[in-house]
Amino acid sequence: MKKLFRFYNILRLTAPTKKGLVFLIVNGIILTVIYNRFFTDSGVYQFDFVLLFGLSVLVVSYYAYIAHSTADNPIYQLPWTAKERVLYTYLNVIFVFFSILIGLILFGYLMMGLFVLLGDGLDSGNDVSVSLRSSLYLIGYSTLFFAIYMPTSFYKNIKRRYVHSFIAWITLVVVNFIVVFILSGNLNLSSSLLIQLNSSSSGLGIAIGMLVVSVLALYVSYDASKRLVKYK
Amino acid sequence: MNSIETKQLYAKIGDFTLNDINLAIPEGSIVGLVGKNGAGKTTLFKTLNGTYLKTSGEMHIGGMNYRNAEKEIRMAMAVMYDRFGGNQYIKGKLLRKIYLQSHPKFDIEMFDDLVHKYGIDLKKKLMNLSFGMQKKLMLILTLSLHPKILLLDEPLIGIDPIDKQEFIRLIQNYMENEQHTIILSSHQVDDLQKIADYILFINEGEIVLFEDKETLLEEYRMLTLPKEDQRVELMINPTPTSLGMQGLIRSRDEKELEDKVKRASLEQIFIHICR
Prior knowledge:
The structure holds 2 protein chains of 2 kinds. By secondary structure, chain A is an all-alpha fold. Chain A has 8 helices and no strands.
């Protein structure tokens, strides 16, 4: 448990500053727009666990960038290697995501309890159907975003950060269009990618494929991040 | 054995460059690092601490290098910068907790004793501690890691004379162990003259001078000559004063000037060499 909180404490040692804030906001907007363009019905913007995870990636990356680019940051007083600092940064994303998720669930239960106490009970009319293939695909997509984006935390050169992030977005959009093309035979996004995935016979295979590719991408990403902070 | 050794070390950070840094700092010594603002003192510390990556050259800390022994180096060396570079909104007790969780050499008993002795309130946010108190906390935190090598960046600046004496006492206690080494940067050259064994002058990213303090003080003399005196040419960076030209000379030239010379202070040597 102590180790778990160590990750969180790394973030607490670092103060948010203007450095990297524009990058965070721009990427947060792009993430929301692209996600909603491909995964929700047109015109409807929603916030779900994929966006929550994406924002956890962006926030941890923002803190990690400040810490790694500030030479007198106290993390350099702690006896960690560059490799460990990268590992802790990656683990921080998962830690932050689950912390917020648990917080939101508790908050949700609290609010639900209040509605039950003060109102007429809950409307159970809206059933949300979740399929295995769409869940697998979204986990894979989130992991792919995590993998592609995380190395931006370790660039010292701000121009390279922007170039990397630009390439990351292009890659994600291209991946989405490739999947749409495989599913429908054209690039037309008449319905959400998830609906197309659920109605296609090859949907499960694509979802598993995405998961495998994203795990491989995460490995490559971690390796690339380690190389960025490696001593010569 | 040398605690810190660098050979032809180069590091480029933005527009600033550390050039051809050659150092051999013996174990158990106190080195006074002196330089103007922007001369490269903090950059040198950050490079030695492995947070600014060197461009070329060699760097060994306690005989180890960052490529294959970063953890060991970070256990052996601690740095105290002129300000706390982290989150000013956290409380001292959280800092204590983080170090306890993350640094195996953190001596909590020593830390608590010193914090109590110097009356530092750990329940206060760092931003609410006075400048002197914050510096004291940073020094205590650093010393509680029992580092073999200690880099202190401007530890004496901005603190009152009483606190300064306490600081110097803490540093002297730390140096009772003969294996400990300190590099201490300061603008207050008089203080360095009292405690340093070696003096390192840095200017525009280059080492101008690295010398044993006693040898250095023996090597230079101050004198004042009339402006028209031809021997002014022997002076290093002479300055016009109401009494004539004042400047530094090397002791070997002293014979020609005999009784007109005075022993130079470290500050005078610094001013004339680094101007």
